[in-house]
Design brief:
This is Chloride channel protein. This protein is mainly alpha-helical and 674 residues long. The protein has 27 helices and 6 strands.
Length: 674
């Protein structure tokens, strides 16, 4: 017994060992977020479709069907049998470990991870029940059969009211108006790694209202944002470094994609290719565990069936590769048109265009603009039912070759226009799912033509629909690997991988080239960092002598603006810095105060020259894994300085704000990446 107690008090939880566990926990909650979001859409859709048949909702036959649905739901009781003992054991271990020193961090991390696991289990089973209810009373699962029975007036009113509600919900929160994915990429790229949790929840609710009421938008953007928001909160509570936080944000985003598409490999590739843009070994285990956990949870609260029905295809001849290359060109052009149109609609509804209508719309409040966008979307539903909601049900019909050529062309064009109207006017949702549908419709139409002229040398139109779906996703996200792996995993066909490689690569490269060529020539973040000197952002801070007693040092640190101070060595030269976090292990121990001085806690760091650029300063911060660096005085004439990562972020944000105010966008708001 004493041996076990002694061993528990020697436990260490270094960050590399905690990160995969935290990634798995984040994956659980991303899967739960996908389930909550899907069921919210189901509730909204059920309310919309049941408006004309409310009397039939509580019929005895419907109630019997509900009981059967609850009985056949995927409850997965083994999750509780495994998760509850592990969580309770971690809580017990946290109580057994004696407090004090580094053990406090171990106790805190064990307790938080255990409570998060129990919280995930407490949410999982109610969500399974809600999914069973939605399977009976909702209509989002069978849109092609349900939409023709919807009254014409409801088709117009539902998206309008949905836009009005979303505009009112987001009116006072302009930072939540984005599509979800660009905000997460921007947070990782800037080094901020902060995505507020309350915004993630608000975006999920707003997007569920938009999609459930018939607005043309995708599910993936809000899920990515919500998963990253939860990961950001958990990572900051656990005390992860900036780099580890970026990995955890990628875990949340990748698990959200895995859960939404029931495609764990594609979710992991998405996190590494698009969010982190790196494939290092240290990021594999947390991201893969997060994707697996998110997919397992989503299969219980969503559906185990893949989004695309498995149909076997084959490459009929080697010459067919040229047809898929042509499809790649078409997908790249479509994705570029999607980006430009969505960008133009956003400008139009914000009053930035010429003429009379755009300035008039710009003066209207957000709820009015979003309602008008919803009304226009409702009108387009009469021309093509694929406009309603995410419209992913029609992908299976295109993959099976059951849609006529005219329907495919009309759906491709109108889905592109309707999504631009819904999101550009102020609605909430992503662009990933709509791009997939647009690509599927375009691919199906292209395949119909090719097969008509070359019936013996080409496959059926359904193969081109699936490959077109991957090409459009790859082009919009500029992530060819994500497009390949997602459709390879969803289709379940080994033969489809060669056409996917050709189409996704060409489409992604073409859209990237066209976007970069037509982008406004403004200074990028890299240009700003290279051309700005450290002295422009540094703060003059008096350095702390090496012999400063701990109590006086504590008072200075707690009252400093950055929580960091430069420290001199015993010869009076700049040595490094001391950060308020370094007091965590000693500030409670009164016996340490007479023994320690500033030099005992200081960390040796290279000093920056005032004339060095910010790009070099950030490289040094990344290498040392710190958020502040000392700045050496010039020939001893000037006081020491301090440059913080927060000051650099404020500088870049101010530059972006000025660029947006003048109409120049360093980051195009409609792009999925950068």
């Amino acid at each position: 017994m004493y041996f076990l107690l002694g061993a528990s008090n020697r436990i260490r939880l270094p960050t590399p060992s905690v990160l995969p566990i935290a990634g798995a926990v984040v994956g659980l909650y991303s899967g739960l977020a996908a389930g909550i979001f899907s069921n919210l859409i189901g509730v909204m859709s059920g309310i919309t479709f049941s408006a004309a048949e409310l009397a039939a909702t509580l019929k005895p036959q419907r109630l019997r069907t509900l009981m059967e649905s609850l009985a056949s739901a995927r409850w997965h009781l083994e999750y509780a049998l495994v998760g509850v003992p592990l969580a309770l054991g971690a809580l017990l271990l946290a109580r057994v470990i004696e407090p004090g020193g580094p053990r406090d961090e171990v106790k805190r991390r064990l307790r938080l991870l255990a409570l998060l696991t129990l919280g995930a289990l407490s949410l999982y089973y109610p969500l399974v029940g809600l999914a069973a209810v939605n399977a009976v009373f909702g209509h989002a699962h069978n849109l092609p059969a349900a939409l023709p029975h919807l009254p014409w007036w409801l088709i117009l009113i539902a998206p309008t009211v949905g836009g009005l509600a979303v505009g009112r919900l987001l009116r006072d929160r302009p930072e939540t108006h984005g599509h979800g994915l660009p905000e997460v990429v921007r947070a990782v790229k800037s080094g901020a790694n902060v995505v507020p949790a309350d915004r993630g929840l608000l975006k999920l609710i707003a997007s569920a209202i938009t999609i459930g009421s018939g607005g043309s938008a995708g599910r993936e953007g809000p899920i990515v944002y919500g998963g990253a928001a939860f990961a950001s909160s958990v990572g900051r509570v656990l005390g992860f470094s900036r780099k580890e936080l970026s990995i955890l944000l990628a875990c949340g985003a990748g698990a959200g994609i895995s859960a939404s598409f029931n495609a764990p490999i594609a979710g992991a590739v998405f996190a590494m290719e698009i969010i982190l843009r790196e494939f290092e070994l240290r990021v594999f285990s947390p991201i893969i565990l997060a994707s697996v956990a998110g997919t397992l949870v989503s299969r219980g609260v969503l559906d185990e069936a893949p989004m695309i029905n498995r149909v076997n295809y084959e490459l009929v001849s080697g010459a067919e590769v040229f047809a898929y290359a042509g499809l790649g060109i078409g997908c790249g052009l479509l994705a570029f048109a999607f980006v430009k149109l969505l960008h133009g609609v956003e400008h139009f509804f914000h009053g930035s265009m010429g003429g009379r209508l755009s300035p008039w719309l710009g003066k209207k409040p957000l709820p009015v603009r979003a309602a008008l966008g919803g009304l226009c979307t409702g009108v387009l539903v009469f021309l093509s039912p694929t406009v309603w909601g995410s419209g992913h049900d029609y992908i299976n019909l295109a993959a099976a070759g059951r849609l006529p050529f005219l329907f495919l062309v009309t759906a491709c064009v109108l889905k592109l226009v309707a999504t631009s109207l819904t999101i550009g006017s102020g609605g909430s949702g992503g662009t990933f799912f709509p791009a997939a549908l647009i690509g599927a419709m375009a691919g199906g139409a292209f395949g119909t033509l090719v097969h008509y002229f070359f019936p013996l040398a080409t496959g059926p139109s359904g193969a081109y629909a699936i490959v077109g779906m991957g090409g459009a996703v790859a082009a919009l996200t500029r992530g060819p690997l994500t497009g390949m792996m997602m459709l390879y995993e969803l289709s379940g066909s080994h033969e489809i991988i060669l056409p996917l490689m050709v189409t996704c690569t060409i489409a992604s490269a073409l859209c990237h080239y066209l976007t970069e060529r037509t982008a406004p020539k403004v200074q990028s973040d890299e240009d700003l960092l290279v051309t700005t000197h450290v002295r422009a952002l540094m703060t003059e801070v008096p350095a702390v002598p090496a012999g400063t007693p701990l109590r006086a040092l504590t008072d200075q640190l707690l009252t400093s603006e950055a929580g960091t101070l430069p420290v001199l060595d015993t010869q009076g030269n700049l040595y490094g810095t001391v950060h308020v976090e370094q007091l965590r292990e000693v500030w409670r121990d009164e016996s340490m105060y007479p023994l320690l001085v500033a030099s005992d806690l200081a960390r040796k760091l290279p000093a920056l020259a005032p004339d060095s650029d910010l790009a070099h300063a950030l490289q040094v911060m990344d290498h040392e894994d710190v958020d502040a660096l000392p700045v050496a005085p010039v020939l001893g004439l000037a006081p020491c300085g301090l440059l913080t990562r927060a000051a650099v972020r404020r500088f870049l944000f101010a530059q972006h704000t000025r660029a947006h105010a003048s109409g120049d966008y360093p980051i195009t708001p409609t792009e999925a990446t950068h």
